[in-house]
Predict the 3D structure of the following.
Amino acid sequence: MTRWAMVADLRRCIGCQTCTAACRHANATPPGVQWRRVLDMEFGEYPDVQRAFVPVGCQHCEDPPCMHVCPTTATKKRADGIVTIDYDLCIGCAYCAVACPYQARYKTDKATFAYGRATVSEAKLEDDARLAVATKCTFCVDRIDAGIGRGQRPGVDPEATPACVNACIAGALAFGDLDDEQSSVSRLLAENQHFRMHEELGTGPGFYYLWDKVAA
Amino acid sequence: MSFGPSPWRQAHWDARAAGNFICGGAGAGSIVFAGLSGADDATLTSLILTGLALVAVGLTCVWLEIGRPLRAVNVFINPRTSWMSREAFTATLLFPAGLATVAGAPGWRWAAAALALAFVYCQGRMLQAAKGIPAWREPLITPLIVASGLAEGAGLFFFTSPLHGVGTRLSLAIFAALVLGRAVLWLVYRGRLSGVAAPEARAALDRTGRVLSVVGTLIPLGLLAVIAVATVQQAIGLFAAIAGLAAALAGAHLKYTILIRAAFNQGFALAQLPVRGRQP
């Protein structure tokens, strides 16, 4: 079996938002829609303060609440763990958006572009099927499927890897198969202490955050 | 440990979604109470038609909110896991059952009441399944929504009582029990959200709690106590109408608050902060 997952190393992320830009470029999301965004979080009080940059987005949960509540079955989970949306089935009720504990879902009623008119890239990727329905991070599923079709390995070969991971200049994002012990994500999780967001809700996110080395 | 950023109010469902819970809940409650009250045929007919109309208004509100209204029929696809699909199916069965009751078909009064109860139960479970909103996913939301729907429906019955009479003492007792039950459920529900829901959500809930206590509970119960000992029929009708209206309006206010004003998500949280200063 395969279970695609993403790992974000909170020690490495510098909040440059290159992953956000890469995602928007790859998926032509409209202004205000960031399938991959990076939170800038501050903790503590002066002088004992700390800052963390936290990549967030769809967590591709093991038990996705968005899928269970969807009245149309537009939201599905593939055998490899990727949660998808069928834009042709979705009625845009946004029930999934309020059911998602990670605020990962968006609904855009009309086409808008960053500079008023669509750029060449935006015009090429603009898709009316995505209007007035739920959208979210897909883990760049098209790249993954096409790459596998070419015999490539997602998480290893850039052409088969999510755009945000490819773009990360700090090596903070990694992608791979949790069920493959040799994958980058499996090795990172074995070598580092990690957690998942809102784990108490039982959704089983497929997105892990590294925060320290495994204690010696 | 939760470090924020601060939770913010969801913007996906607006007053149109609240309209479904307000109108649908009160309408379904009205149909249930029509069955429980033992009302005569004319009263039963008017109550059920009013209830069905309210449910229809609520569903229309939702239809106006969805992004792709021409695909609305797709809402029926997933009754296996989605309470929204189940609500849609229940509503679809409720209308013929209600109309059969109105047409005088024997036995359908109880079928309509059961379906109306199922409808309002689905509404409660819809909120409970929304894990993104702490004020919704609290399991007590379901009995609270059901109790409020029934209290609102009973309130509508007594609001219109100058037209058809207040019914039996049992009806009054059921109404009082529903109002009281809703207040108790509210108090327990609110208590469970302490430390869980966002401060802004708790503040909104507390403001509504005061309205619910006074307008939705104390006034109706006080007026029902007066009715229990009153002998002047005109005064009884007036007091019952005021009590019913207060209970129904407080329920609508409660639902609007839960659906809109208290609908804060939980933001983002880090279970651990990154440990820096060592080679990762």
Summary: Residues 26 and 163 of chain A are 7 Å apart (CA to CA). The mean pLDDT of chain A is 95. Strands of chain A lie at 4-9, 36-45, 48-57, 75-77, 83-85, 106-107, 134-135, 173-177, 192-195, 207-213. Helices of chain A lie at 18-27, 65-69, 95-99, 120-125, 141-149, 163-167, 184-191.
